[in-house]
Specification:
Shape: globular
Number of helices: 11
Largest sheet: 8 strands, parallel
Distance between the termini: 6 Å
CATH topology of one domain: TIM Barrel
Number of strands: 11
Strand order of the largest sheet: 1-5-6-7-8-9-10-11
CATH architecture of one domain: Alpha-Beta Barrel
Structural class: alpha/beta
CATH class of one domain: Alpha Beta
Radius of gyration: 19 Å
CATH superfamily of one domain: Metal-dependent hydrolases
Strand content: 15-25%
Order of helices and strands: EHEEEHEHEHEHEHHEHEHEHH
Length: 333
Amino acid sequence: MNLRAIDMHSHFFPREWEDLGKRFGGEWPWMKHLGGGKAVVMMGDKEFRPVYSACWDAAQRLEEMDRDGVDLQVMCATPVLFAYARPAAQALYCAQLFNDAGLELAATGQGRLKTLCQVPLQDTDVACKELTRAVKAGHLGVQIGNHVGERDLDDEGIVTFLQHCAAEGAAVLVHPWDMMGGARTARWMMGWTVSMPAETQLSIVALILGGAFDRLPKNLRLCFAHGGGSFAFLLGRLENAWRNRDVARGKSALPPSAYTDRFYVDSAVFDPRALRLLVEVMGEDRVMLGSDYPFPLGEQRVGKLIRDMEGLPADARRKLLVDNARRFLGLRA
């Protein structure tokens, strides 16, 4: 199958879903439709994010994929739906609701839409069971948040879940959420432009310095969204600290730069200079097209950054657009 591009990081919302606030109490996301294919995702009575029909309409998605030269797109729900702070039973109900909805949407996509599930990561056993169920149902893997409360990715329970993903052959996309910064980053969407990259860097560093990569199997297929956040651009600082201060080494057996072959990153960095550095740091086999479509902060013409990047050899461009995602997702050539 000769594909032009695989977009391995996109999101969906169903057009509507059960009133979870009525079932469980408290604030849950719901969809407020405005007409003309436009809507707002609400949290209780507060606006969370403007969206449009591509979130729930496969025909709209396919039309825009054709426009951008994307042959296959992987969808996952949005972190606002993780419900990690809720009781595990409630988060499981939510996960199953949206996991099944994702498969229903993909089934209308003429074979061009695939999905990643979500799980109640606050309960390792329940998360493992839902991962197994979802993969058997047709999901290619799972999207998880980069932390669960104060638990980072080197937490023993989360490491156990990642080991289970490796055993099941499930790809794992780590997406930042519940961002640091509080009131200081509440202005001007700085939670997304400042805190989100920092959250992703923190989770990668936790896996390295917490010794988790030394315990995780090498067949684990793990990707960090948004170019891995700040990691590639601050790796030199991390490396310098590891080599010159014992307290900065944590539990890692090797220096931080030795672990760049243990995970992937997507290409959602929006600047050719940033993408060039990302490929230099991570290697051309570890960067994949990921757009964050169809959200306002996603790539507006999916794949344009990679396709227009000057000086990128044709074979490397092919890896970023297709081959690396195929390997990460476990798809046959």
